[in-house]
Amino acid sequence: MPHPARISEPAITDAARALLEQEGVEGLSMRELARRLGVRAPSLYFYVKSRDDLLRLLNSAGLRELGAMLTAAASGAATPGARLHAMADAYASFAFGSPQLFRLIFGPCPEERRAEASAAEAAARPLLAAAGDLVSAEDVLDIARALWSLVHGYTTLALSEQFQMGGEPRQAIHRALDYLLAGIESGGRGASIVQPRVVG
Amino acid sequence: MPHPARISEPAITDAARALLEQEGVEGLSMRELARRLGVRAPSLYFYVKSRDDLLRLLNSAGLRELGAMLTAAASGAATPGARLHAMADAYASFAFGSPQLFRLIFGPCPEERRAEASAAEAAARPLLAAAGDLVSAEDVLDIARALWSLVHGYTTLALSEQFQMGGEPRQAIHRALDYLLAGIESGGRGASIVQPRVVG
DNA sequence: GGGATTGCCTAACAGTGTAAGTTTTCCTCG
DNA sequence: CGAGGAAAACTTACACTGTTAGGCAATCCC
After folding, report:
1. Residue A132 carries which DSSP code?
2. Which among B116, B180, B90, B113 has a CA at the least distance from the CA of B142?
3. How far A12 CA lies from chain B's nearest CA (Å)?
4. Inter-chain contact B196–A186, Cβ cutoff 8 Å?
5. Alpha helical stretches, state H, chain A
6. Which of A179, B67, B102, B197 gives 20 to 30 Å between its CA and that of A30?
């Protein structure tokens, strides 16, 4: 090797993640990223196919990190309920610790920058495992989706400050989760009250 | 009036919304929008302060429309439970009917393009009213947030196709809502099991 | 030391949002 | 019926973006 290389894919993704958190997705420009790495923009294209591909890498890495945090949180709790509370907390911690990355992962994704399926699976697995400890196998998928929805919705809305009316949403999520867990343990109400209508 | 004006703010926002749904946020460019209106890009700036301002207008209009849909859905249901199911359905209908607008509203918003507070309030009001029929006044805020979180999370995840493993999430949302409603009616489990820890 | 190879460069293109200044078009008024 | 005025949209331009094509220079192997 002639030159010792000045940059590398890990260095690029690290710097990109930092820049993402500081400036948001739209502020993550190839030129600014290159500037921070002491290099010119076109040089990045020797290590990364395109900007969308770079975002896809961040997306996948973020999902794997989220999965690892969920797994770690789950491993420290005894009961299924405590496990889910710990995971909800980890979920919110990830979102509030890396808000822009969280938004990148779950925001509008032009298909070019969507994470690999394996990364998404890595994030979903610990949740499915926890749900499996809670209900029978045939209900796992529905229950996991309900739990994920509640936690994800809460986190997303809190992150985008849609909960405008005061309070401490970061803690109240545990109350909401308790309600849902209570409903799950009681078996719900049976069939839906209204027939869902599908609208185009 | 010298010319009869060829464009107007409503014409711009209408075309912008159509373009948004067709091409996504990043595809909504001022030049393409102008081209569709038979005009050049700089002319748009007589009616709209900036692209971000245009997105803010779409955002506000979308929130008001969502609020109207929720109100309409609620008005057709007798019991509080049926009302919430109908609203959940309306929420999903809005999201699946105008996915890009939904993502614009609840996605990452650079503060410049965030909707006016009154629009957000218009969307939240029907939910707060329905929650008020379900629980006592002191719990309304928490319960409304939990309900909104569940429905929003479910809709968001289904919309971004994070629910990869088959099934019909559009209908399963009613099951999840039933679980949460059952838990709310039973009063939950009391205090949280784990103490929430706040992480930077 | 010479040649090859590699890593980064500069230059350029097509696209973006947006500001300044200019032209065109119509209505009104004398 | 023609002149003035004003409003609408125009052209031009700038700084920025992602990205490609070709070139220079620095290192390693022989």
Report:
1. H
2. B180
3. 23
4. no
5. 9-23, 30-36, 51-75, 80-97, 99-106, 117-132, 140-159, 169-185
6. B102
Residue B174, both tokens: 């009613």
Q: Which residue has the tokens 């393009």?
A: B113
Helix (H) or strand (E) holding B17: helix B9-23
Residues facing strand D, Cβ within 7 A: A 1-4, 28-32, 41-42, 45, 50-52; B 1-3, 5-7, 34, 38-40, 42-43, 46
Q: Is B141 on the interface with A (CB under 8 A)?
A: yes
Å from B39 (CA) to C22 (C1')? Answer: 17
Using an 8 Å Cβ cutoff, are A85 and A176 in contact?
no
Give Cα B200 to chain centroid, integer Å.
Answer: 28
Positions 41-60 in A, CB within 7 angstroms of strand C: 42-43, 46
The answer to whether the C-beta of B78 is closer than 7 A to strand C is: no
Continuous segment of H or E residues that includes residue B54: helix B51-75
Residue B152 tokens read as 């929003």
Confidence of residue A24 (pLDDT cuts 50, 70, 90): very high
Specify which residue's alpha carbon is closest to the C1' of nucleotide D25: A3
Asked if residue B41 lies in contact with residue B62, where contact means CB atoms within 8 angstroms, the answer is no
- pTM for this model (two decimals): 0.91
Measured between alpha carbons, how far is A180 from B145 in angstroms, rounded to an integer? Answer: 13
CB pair distance less than 8 Å for A187 and B190: no
Q: Are A164 and A137 in contact (CB under 8 A)?
A: no
Tens digit of pLDDT for each residue in B143-155? 999 999 999 999 9
Give chain B's radius of gyration (CA, Å).
20
Structure confidence by residue, pLDDT tens digits, A72-100: 999 999 999 999 999 999 999 999 999 99
Backbone angles phi, psi at A133, to 5 degrees: -80, -10
In angstroms, what CA-CA distances link A156 with A96, A169, B96, B120, B156? 10, 11, 18, 15, 9
Determine phi and psi for B167, rounding to 5 degrees: 80, 180
Give the integer Cα–Cα distance in Å for A56 and A62: 10
Structure tokens at A96: 């509030």
Confidence class of residue B5 from pLDDT cuts 50, 70 and 90?
Answer: confident
